[in-house]
Amino acid sequence: MPVMMSSTIPRGMEETMSRPLQRGHRTSLGLNSMGRPVFKTAVYQKRRSHRSSEVRDVSLEVVRSLLIFLSRRKLLRKWMETSTLAQRFAARFVAGSSLEQALTVCRELNSEAITVTLDVLGESISSIEEAAAARDAYLRTITAIHENGVQGNVSLKLTQFGIDLSGDVCRANVGQLVERAAALNGFVRVDMESSEYVDRTLGLVCDLHDKYRAVGTVIQAYLYRSKNDIEMLNARGIRVRLCKGAYLEPASAAFPQKAQVDANYIALMQLLLDKGSYPAIATHDEKMIAATKAYAASHKISRDAFEFQMLYGIRRDLQRQLAKEGFRVRVYVPYGRAWYPYYMRRLAERPANVLFILRNMFK
Q1: Residue 41 lies in a domain
Q2: Catalytic residue positions?
Q3: How far, in Å, CA of 8 to CA of 263, rounded?
Q4: Which pTM was predicted?
Q5: What's the pLDDT tens digit per position in 200-226?
Q6: Burial level of 188, CB count in 10 A (0-12/13-18/19+)?
Q7: d(Cα 19, Cα 353) in Å, to the nearest integer?
Q8: Which of 39, 9, 79 lies closest to 340 in space, CA to CA?
Q9: Is residue 4 classed as helix, strand or coil in its secondary structure?
Q10: CATH number at residue 215
Q11: 320 near 112, Cβ under 8 Å?
């Protein structure tokens, strides 16, 4: 015998009751504070969605940690960097093994009103001779940028220039590059590596900036200390590239949750746009880009007072879109044979890139 409830069901509830439940939803009927019947589907969905999000975040962190761990395996690196098959995987993010190949990529990007920063790949060298070779490769790159009329500069890592072997040797090597860049109206960006290098990196950059000016650095939003570092660099007029961070850091040094990193990134971006010297906002995250555009517009900050930076091979559609909108865009273009650690960190930043590469491997 059917139960007659229409007299107690609020107007419009009949339609809600007649709709089929979606997969995974649980609906129950209860009473609100007025004694009227209400459905509780939304509460269940919210809790379920929250749990799913937590599981997804944990899974991504596991994948990210694994990729960073693999980036440090020397035997795997040796095999990957000498394997023809592995080099096909790297081609998405690395602009060839030679300077000429990299310059060809740079010219193509310049033709789309996109500037570049060239990075001669290599890090964690084991001898002073290797550090000198890296210095010479960069000197050739800085000269080639000038002679070929490329709109670009260079980025480097101090571990490639001997900082783990000798601070003095490293400073002398990088000093030669900054001096050459200054003479050619160029610029050198000193990349930031893991948190153990921050103080040494900032000390070297500040000293060279006092002498030559033509040098800047990178600050990572996931480190707790980054706000203080940016305030110091802003006060000295040193150019900063802001990124989220790509190294595996302890919770004692870095924000452990993505939402915390994103919030700090936005706060640091605003600090740079307000008081920085031609800051670089380095991100592929459309939410961070939208936040930057909105802040610049609301505070009447000119589009030529800062630039967006992105990595070669990632979000090329977004790079072109921003350039067409009149924003300054610079693409980080790595080249060279020692590509493996860099490549693995790019995958770790966005594990979905692994599936992207596999899907497009044989196309």
Answers
A1: no
A2: 191, 241
A3: 47
A4: 0.75
A5: 999 999 999 999 999 999 999 999 999
A6: buried
A7: 39
A8: 79
A9: coil
A10: 3.20.20.220
A11: yes
